[in-house]
Amino acid sequence: MADTQPPAEGSGEPQQPSKNALKKAQKEAEKAAKKAAAKERELAERMKKEASDAADVSAESYGELPLTGSKGFKKTGTPRVSLSDIDEYVDKEITFRCWVENARVQSAKLAFLNLRQAYNTIQAVVAASDKLSKQMVKFAGNVSTESLLVVTGEVKRVQEPIKSATIKDYELHIVKLFIEKKADVLPLQVSDAERAIPNEGLGEDVQKEGEGEGQPIVGLNTRLNNRTIDLRAKINLAIFDIKMGVQTLFLEFLSKEKFRLINTPKILGAASEGGANVFELKYFDRKAYLAQSPQFYKQMLIAARFQRVMEIGSVFRAENSNTARHLTEFIGLDLEMEFQEDYHEVMDVLENLMLFIFKELNTRYKKETDLVRSVYHVDEFKLPESGKVPRIEFTEGIKMLREVGEELNDFDDLSTPQEKLLGKLVLEKYGSDFYTLDQFPLAIRPAYTMPSPANANLSNSYDMFMRGQEICSGAQRIHDADLLSEMMRKHDPPVDPNGPGTKDYVDSFRYGCPPHGGGGFGLERIVQFWLGLPNIRMTSLFPRDPQRVVP
Amino acid sequence: MADTQPPAEGSGEPQQPSKNALKKAQKEAEKAAKKAAAKERELAERMKKEASDAADVSAESYGELPLTGSKGFKKTGTPRVSLSDIDEYVDKEITFRCWVENARVQSAKLAFLNLRQAYNTIQAVVAASDKLSKQMVKFAGNVSTESLLVVTGEVKRVQEPIKSATIKDYELHIVKLFIEKKADVLPLQVSDAERAIPNEGLGEDVQKEGEGEGQPIVGLNTRLNNRTIDLRAKINLAIFDIKMGVQTLFLEFLSKEKFRLINTPKILGAASEGGANVFELKYFDRKAYLAQSPQFYKQMLIAARFQRVMEIGSVFRAENSNTARHLTEFIGLDLEMEFQEDYHEVMDVLENLMLFIFKELNTRYKKETDLVRSVYHVDEFKLPESGKVPRIEFTEGIKMLREVGEELNDFDDLSTPQEKLLGKLVLEKYGSDFYTLDQFPLAIRPAYTMPSPANANLSNSYDMFMRGQEICSGAQRIHDADLLSEMMRKHDPPVDPNGPGTKDYVDSFRYGCPPHGGGGFGLERIVQFWLGLPNIRMTSLFPRDPQRVVP
Q1: Which regions are flagged for Basic and acidic residues bias (chains A, B) (predicted)?
Q2: Residues A180-198, buried b or exposed e (16+ Cβ, 10 A)?
Q3: How does pLDDT run across B80-116, given as a tens digit for each residue?
Q4: ∠ at Cα A110 (A107, A113), nearest 5°?
């Protein structure tokens, strides 16, 4: 209508005949002609398209959907299934959401797609027929990798097992295929993220990327820079399902043991543990600090008669350690409990907790564990056949190391290589990748550690190891305010028991605190060493280290 | 021997007889006499004490134990029981750890103690007999309040129910009583902490303390300053057992619904949500920020195809809000999920989650709930009889408020008093203390909120309320990078989609992100409004607000 309307009366143009007016009229005529031609072309194209659509028997069965939840989107109400339940749908038509691992046109009449949904992949066939158009085959075979689809198809049993999919016995004969959300060109291929990272260091080596045996090797930094693509790899889904598993098993076991789940503050008014390695923040008009552990608070809750407490929470360490097993932010699995007469009661709980976690990971998370370990060629995690965790005194550990040539004094701390070596010796002797070292030298432990009644140079404290690497540190804590104050003052470096970050803590032991002990596990380390992964960053969704605070 | 030995030959003293030598000999004789007298006295005292000990038939049955785990401590190996199992031990002798609620000497031959262990209290009798000395009665009756004991006694049924203890049918006839850890004079009486705080404000009013109906009223600040004593009150143990309950029920329900437990970073390289109300920290040689919510990360994990995610984690808000329902640090219960065709699928999950939590709190945590509500005279939490959570459109809510005289424009945000009023109206109309408000005005929601297809001024977003107060905010999120960028730029205040804190987030929606929505609950608010507590600080073990970062 608007196009054919005469110029409105009183339009701005003065009505004077002139050369300019003639030129103008000519121009307008030309314009009108062009317009008419364009209209004709448009009409022709529309008719052609309509004819073509009419010819396309599948016109209503494929295409790109409007944004879900937007004005143009229409609900279908069609129920969608999970590929995990595919056995229930043989020879039936199913609709489901999935994404494209790859799509390829075989011929004008045939396209194949590999479709994925969580851990499952299925081969899909789009074959031209009198019910399915060549246009649809072309469309389906050209969907970009990682695009999100809603497909409808028939589940068909196949003769030969399909090698390229996790679902080996069935393929899907596509009936409808809609792009729910198209993927742009990817900065990182998910298939590359499924392969092992080149080495365990970070620095330059990890950033080095190249062609190894014909396939691109993508370094850890590139993966972490594109983490939301990287995490789509099945190996990563498995790592984080296991990480969830460790947390839920931790809660499951300790709940049965009557531990109370607590939430302690992460913002502290004063740096409690000496002030080293602590992040400082602006707290309104004063300074505050991020908690390096829930240590003081979980003990204060024992003093508050909570009896047994556990926490899963963020822990912050401002250590400038750029190693394969340090993070500046990680999840601490902490527990603290009163005991009756002997701190070994606490060790029993800790050891049984870990045995429970390992055993249940081996059953409930076997698939995920196998998937990850197969990529990194990692040995099984050996547990003692006797069911009893090797508990070795520190002095005995020193002896074992000396016997193989290590030079160590009685009360020296172990270096990381020495810890790993001792792990190997223990594995040889006791057949266990998990063990406990008891009665550490007092001098190398925190000021709140209970001295050993047997030897004033030792203490009622312990560490736990997986594959020769520390995952837990714990001890009986001093539950007497006066002894605690004395030990703080005598500590190297000394701690002020009346300091702003310590006074409330020390005072909490003046009102009848029960004897207690506990420990703190690094969740990411448990996952790393369980799976035998070369770098702890792989076990954090968005890892934080001195160099990295994004994404 | 040493005393009677002659001086050694060649001792330093020259052998010259002189006045000095005489004086010296006299002095030494005096010394020797004194020494002998002292020895005699000592011997006499020792004999007297031995005689007295011999007379004290209970000498081995009471006293103060050396510090558990120290050199002087000796293990007994006696098994210790839980008072929860007392029914199993009628007429039997039991040993257990407990603490002293109060102790009083009735006569030289009789003392009473109220002993506590977790939620249980029992009356204990110490009666002199031929087997139990008056000395022991005196010792037991004078043990300081809150001291930790290990007692042994016989469980005896009583005729009249005991009013002053939770265990009404039995009392304990003490046989042995040892102080395991003595309590100093308390800065706060636990019995005072069992009573209601004077009012809900903080400021001056709460610090005002005085005598109300003959009993001291202790304000919230005093309680929080002495939190480890305060937390010993049963009402506090109940509050935190319920807080644990909400968390475990959250995990239980959502695990069954196949949500993945995630752990997102709390240290961010850039302030993501505009930079207001965010804590800044020193991160090595740069600045970093504390996460105000896991919002961006949980959505990025949906983009990473994690499908359904949940998190229980610390949330930090640098809001200078000194109200009864704000904390600067709290626990967020977050979830995010892809949906198929309609964001109301997400609301269904959220509502069913909360219904599950409420129902299970009513059964599994009924005792604890009743204990707390009885102190604060709080009404039962009403749930809809139909089992269907009232889901009210925002515009309908506005209408309800206008009908009772509130002046509001169509797209105005509700004030806190208006929210509370609407809560009352909903309770009257639908009989539910829990309800959902749907389709909020777009302008008052974050930039990533999906606009409503029905009305461009509204959005696919919702809040959830308990007793008229907000506990959850959620929405369908925009899962298209271009639309998201546009909405960010158009937002008031505008957000830069290419900023250091937003670019990775926006880009994660370029690679086929599914439609999704979710919500974030404030854990402390759920506990506060479930129990009807006047102040949110009561639901945080060690609360943080603009004025408080200790203990």
Answers
A1: 25-52
A2: bbbbeebebebebbeeebb
A3: 999 999 999 999 999 999 999 999 999 999 999 999 9
A4: 115
CA distance A546 to chain B (A): 7
Rounded to 5 degrees, φ, ψ at A164 are: -85, 5
- Lookup result for tokens 């040889």: A428
Question: What pTM does this model have?
Answer: 0.90
* Residue B122 contacts residue B167 (beta carbons within 8 Å): yes
In whole angstroms, give the CA distance from residue A98 to residue A103.
13
- Residue B295 CB-half CA count within 13 A: 25
Say if strands B267-268 and B280-283 run parallel, antiparallel, or are unpaired. unpaired
Q: Side-chain half-sphere of A361: how many Cα atoms within 13 Å?
A: 32
Query: Which residue's structure tokens are 């990411």?
Result: A524
CA distances from A547 to A46, A536, B24 (A): 58, 15, 80
Report the candidate in A256, A319, A271 with the shortest Cα–Cα distance to residue A522: A319
**Crossing angle between the packed helical segments B366-376 and B344-364, to the nearest 10 degrees:** 80
Average pLDDT over chain B, rounded to an integer = 91
In whole angstroms, what is the distance from residue B37 CA to residue A373 CA?
82
Q: What is the ipTM of this complex?
A: 0.90
Which 305-324 residues of chain B touch chain A by CB within 8 A? 305-307, 312-314, 316, 318, 320
The two structure tokens encoding residue B342: 């309609």
Q: Which domains does chain A have, with CATH numbers?
A: 63-181 (2.40.50.140), 234-539 (3.30.930.10)
CB–CB contact A69 B460 (8 Å): yes
Which residue from B232, B511, B541 is facing A263, i.e. has the nearest CB? B541
User: What is the SS3 assignment for A327-372?
Assistant: CCEEEEEEEEEECCCCCHHHHHHHHHHHHHHHHHHHHHCHHHHHHH
Cis peptide, bond prior to residue A493, ω within 30 of zero: yes
What is d(CA A390, CA A351) in angstroms, rounded to the nearest whole number?
10
**N-to-C CA span, chain A:** 53
Please say if B470 is a catalytic residue: yes
Burial A472-492 (b: 16+ CB within 10 A, else e): bbbbbbbbbbebbbebbeebe
- Nearest CB neighbour to A232, from listed B260, B304, B341: B304
Is A228–B508 a contact, with Cβ atoms under 8 angstroms apart? yes
Q: Determine the residue type at B425.
A: L
Measure CB to CB from residue B546 to each of A147, A284, A504 and give the nearest one. A284
DSSP at A476: E
Tens of pLDDT, residues A475-489: 999 999 999 999 999
